[in-house]
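User: Please fill in residues for this 173-position structure.
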């Protein structure tokens, strides 16, 4: 079975600290921190690398959530710099145009809309898009951070479930 081959558990020391697949764990966190790849790719890589699906989801969410303060800071600084520097204003205008496509939904549902925008793992959504929309709407900082974390958790669970389900279907053949 495909899934059984992926789980290389040590029977002499099950769940032991030294047996844990640290390279796969770091790989999941690193991939999950890369914009546009995020946990949509990090979690499947972790599961295929032999990590337990729950561990892969937790590491993917952690790797993605760790960048929330950085993203909020970058968006804040870009808005400040755009007032002074023309090229930054052009970059911000491009980001704002992309964010405007999602703004109406987020305005309608508030923080929950932002969490769902980030949490639905399809192209054009995700943490960076959510940050751009929140920045465009001038949402309060703490509400933005909590909505982003909730959205990442939703996305992590969905990606983990889809990946595990896909592997189970592959096992049937």
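Assistant: Residues filled in for all 173 positions:
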């Amino acid at each position: 079975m495909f899934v059984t081959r992926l789980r290389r558990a040590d029977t002499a020391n099950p769940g032991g600290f030294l047996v844990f697949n640290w390279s796969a764990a770091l790989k999941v966190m690193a991939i999950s921190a890369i914009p546009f790849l995020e946990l949509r790719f990090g979690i499947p890589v972790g599961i295929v690398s032999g990590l337990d699906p729950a561990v892969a989801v937790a590491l993917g969410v952690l790797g993605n959530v760790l960048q929330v303060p950085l993203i909020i800071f970058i968006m804040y600084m870009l808005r400040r710099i755009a007032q002074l520097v023309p090229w930054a204003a052009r970059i911000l205008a491009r980001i704002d145009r992309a964010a405007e496509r999602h703004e109406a939904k987020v305005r309608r549902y508030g923080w929950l809309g932002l969490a769902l925008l980030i949490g639905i793992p399809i192209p054009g959504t995700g943490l960076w898009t959510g940050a751009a929309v929140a920045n465009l709407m001038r949402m309060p900082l703490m509400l933005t951070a909590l909505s982003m974390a909730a959205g990442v958790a939703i996305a992590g669970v969905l990606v983990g479930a889809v990946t595990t389900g896909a592997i189970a279907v592959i096992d049937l053949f």
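For context: The chain has two domains: 2-65, 68-153.
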